[in-house]
Amino acid sequence: MVRSHPDLPSPSDAFFIATSRRILAATGLAAPGDPQSCRSATVRVGEHEIRIITPLVRPDGTIADPGRDRALALAVCHLVDASAQPRHQVAVAAAARRPPLVTPPSSPIHPPAARTSSARRP
Questions:
Q1: 13-27 and 69-84 helices cross at what angle (nearest 10)?
Q2: Which of 12, 26, 44, 54 qualifies as a cystine partner to 40, CB 3.0-4.6 A?
Q3: Interatomic CA distance for residues 38 and 30, integer angstroms
Q4: What is the b/e burial string over 81-116, where b = at least 16 CB atoms within 10 angstroms of the residue's CB?
Q5: Does residue 54 contact residue 38 with C-beta atoms inside 8 Å?
Q6: What is the Cα–Cα distance from 26 to 71, expressed in whole angstroms?
Q7: In the chain, what is the greatest distance between 2 CA atoms, to the nearest angstrom?
Q8: CA 50 to CA 120: how far, in whole Å?
Q9: Full-prediction pTM beyond 0.70?
Q10: How many CB atoms lie within 10 A of CB 64?
Q11: What tens digit of pLDDT does each residue of 35-56 get?
Q12: Is the pLDDT of residue 88 over 50?
């Protein structure tokens, strides 16, 4: 399943077809020009969503290895998303998702340290 942001204009069919081809090529399920690649279908479900349906059996009967397919497909989606947005918006969005590196000292996670006197107690 591939979705675009609902606040953005609806992507064209050509955009979704190109994206699904990039995903299938990256995962090795349907490389361009490979006659032994897995057959696939891309179905547009709504204005902002498609589903890619691919059986894992190639025409010659061998079974494709889906080991890293999810990670590769996600990487392609990130590349498509980054290329569709201006660089500044991508950097701002990435910075907004990043948690702070240091928790402020006044937070409940770090209560104030108990004060100890420098003199030794007997």
A1: 140
A2: 54
A3: 5
A4: eeeeeeeeeeeeeeeeeeeeeeeeeeeeeeeeeeee
A5: yes
A6: 10
A7: 85
A8: 71
A9: no
A10: 17
A11: 888 888 999 988 888 898 988 8
A12: no
